[in-house]
Design brief:
It is built from twelve helices and eleven strands. It is an alpha/beta fold and about 325 residues long. It has two domains: about 210 residues, TIM Barrel (Alpha-Beta Barrel), CATH 3.20.20; about 100 residues. It has a seven-stranded parallel β-sheet with strand order 6-3-2-1-9-8-7. The protein has a two-stranded antiparallel ribbon with strand order 4-5. The longest helix is centred in the last third of the chain and has 17 residues. The radius of gyration is 20 Å and the shape is globular.
Length: about 325
Amino acid sequence: MLNIIMYHYVRNNEDYFYDTFSRRKDEFEAQIDFFRRSSEIVDPADMEKIKYYLNNHNEEAYLLTFDDGYKDHFYCAKYLFDRNIRAFFFPPISSLNGEILDINSIHMIIGVRGLKIKKILKVISEICLSSNFLLTLNKQKVDINTYLENFKIVDNYDDRNTLMIKRILQKDIIGDDNRKFIIDILIKKFIGEKSSKISSELYLNIDDLQKMKNMGMLFGSHGKTHRWLTNLNYFEQKEEIEKSLKTLKELQLIGSDEPMSMCYPFGAYDSNTIKLMGDLKIDLGFTTDIGASMATNKKEFIFKLPRWDTNHFWDNKWRRPCVFVK
């Protein structure tokens, strides 16, 4: 079996003006060294070995993946390179163009120290009411008051109010322009920085990516604009995936002899996505489903690979890496 590990932020929060759910640098180093001692970390370019572990239920190894193209990942790549380890990195193309992903705007707003979640939710509610914005809840169009009263989704990491803010601003507000309108107001009100400055400090740039490529790191698609693929039709999904891969190839970040990979934004995929994976001859598809990856009798399993979050292999009581009990 293959334990595919998923990383996002790898940083020390005290170095930033906001807190986010992250793996500290010393924790990251301890975890990687733990993986090296306990098993093999598979080279992502070695499809033969990847398939070997996927089809072998008696042996296990690790595969490392990094989502969203953060500056943090340059440090990670350097640490891995110094230990002769390679990994997959998945930068959204829009992050290379000076745009801030909605998800990161949300992380910043929620993470501002001293800012109460209820205050953020109150501002969102006021904007929706004054602008007559509608939302989607249980496949129905509703106003903000109905949404707040009837939201019942449970999450392992976030409280109800935090999760509502994430869902409203990620996908449930109807209209991309409406979502961006709300996020822009929140950024100006609670952060006060220019988007271009935030973007340059948050994301890897092309020079960073090419240096990482020279270290031997591999890159794959995380979409053109990091949108929920399940909100898009077949042709819209095709554009998201195809254009992102085209850009990565033009930047010489995907070699002709390297596997083609796709990491679904927010872990969201549907039957159209799986069909596209085959149509576009992509080799590997990574989800955010939790668990070890193992081959099944269904051909499309290779496009639905689950991953462990880095926190599944971390003991929060003792602050050390651990063997996760499956």
